[in-house]
Amino acid sequence: MADKSxxxxxxxxxxxxxxVKTVSSFNLKAVSYSEVAKKYGLTNPTxxxxxxxxxxxxxxxxxxxxxxxxxxxxxxxxxxxxxxxEDVSAIMRACFGxxxxxxxxxxxxxxxxxxxxxxLANILMNxxxxxxxxxxxxxxxxxESAEQLGLIKGGILRYSDAENEPEEPAAKQxxxxxxxxxxxxxxxxxxSSVAQVVQVPIPGEADYITQAIPFASGKIARFIIxxxxxxxxxxxxxDMLDVLLKRKFKLDI
Length: 253
Known about the structure:
Elements: H1 13-24, E1 31-32, H2 33-39, H3 48-59, E2 63-66, E3 70-73, H4 75-81, H5 89-96, H6 100-109, H7 117-128, H8 135-148, E4 152-153, E5 156-157, H9 169-177, E6 184-187, H10 194-198, E7 208-214, E8 220-226, H11 231-252
Helix pairs in contact: 1-3, 7-8
């Protein structure tokens, strides 16, 4: 039996947005796979073209599924397709960075030239456990989605580029002062400031892996972790989050 390929979004960002708008058109909290499949002219929701969109939307944090037969839009997705005046570009950018493969590629190429499709495909196969049979598709979809979101400019991946975003001097100073901390979690205080907080520059950016995580409220948290973090460092982060969870639980009682 052939080895299974590592996880990657098998649909582009635009295809995913089209998919969630189709789900939204039912005006229901949850929609069955089969009903959504019919919108695409499919009689079987297990068709690869359909499951690819479902899987990609889940990786981007746009939908959740229940029991393998119903689809629900996330609050993050609703903020994107039903904007209320806020700039949703930062939320979409955070969603793009959610798939595990894309997290790694962003950490490697943010602010750098993206390899051409053929070279990137070989990198995905050799360094990221993407199978040979799908490496070209995986590379093409990453580049396509980044272009659809306007994240590639002049061949450079501009995921963390704050060129067109208002700066937050206080936030920048805070990150600089804490540059030696193993990890940082930054959450936006209000939905209107999501774009500003997500764009806080990272000291020694090439030495860090970043992961933006949209919350159900529509706000965004961001992990900033050194690339040389050890297993003990990550376990410490796990323990810190556990303490926060317990503290939040006590406060809510």
